[in-house]
Amino acid sequence: MEPQAVLTLAQQAMFTLLGVSAPVLGAVLVVGLLISLFQALTQINEATLSFVPKLIAAIAVLLLVGPWMLTTLVDFLRRMLLALPEYAV
């Protein structure tokens, strides 16, 4: 397998990973910022206050976007498995 092919496969894998994880990470980031703003305004410094809303947001996004994430990952895996004979030396 040529080095360029390996880099291309790694790049495709990283872009797929970034695209699939972006909705969950974005939601958790927004909730974390809102909770931090709330804590700064009210001067409540409770560590568990930020954990539960982030967990709920992550679960909600996974429920909403989970089927798309699974389809995207399965399609990527299918493309990689079908491309294996091309890269076999």
UniProtKB/TrEMBL annotation:
Belongs to the FliQ/MopD/SpaQ family. The chain crosses the membrane at residues 12-35, 55-77. The lineage of its organism: Bacteria, Pseudomonadati, Pseudomonadota, Betaproteobacteria, Burkholderiales. Keywords: Bacterial flagellum, Cell membrane, Cell projection, Cilium, Flagellum, Membrane, Transmembrane, Transmembrane helix. The keyword Transmembrane applies. The keyword Kinase does not apply. GO terms for biological process: bacterial-type flagellum assembly; protein secretion. Role in flagellar biosynthesis. One of its GO terms (cellular component) is plasma membrane. InterPro entries: Bac_export_3, FliQ. This is Flagellar biosynthetic protein FliQ. It is a multi-pass membrane protein. It is found in: Cell membrane; Bacterial flagellum basal body. It comes from the Bacteria. The gene is fliQ.
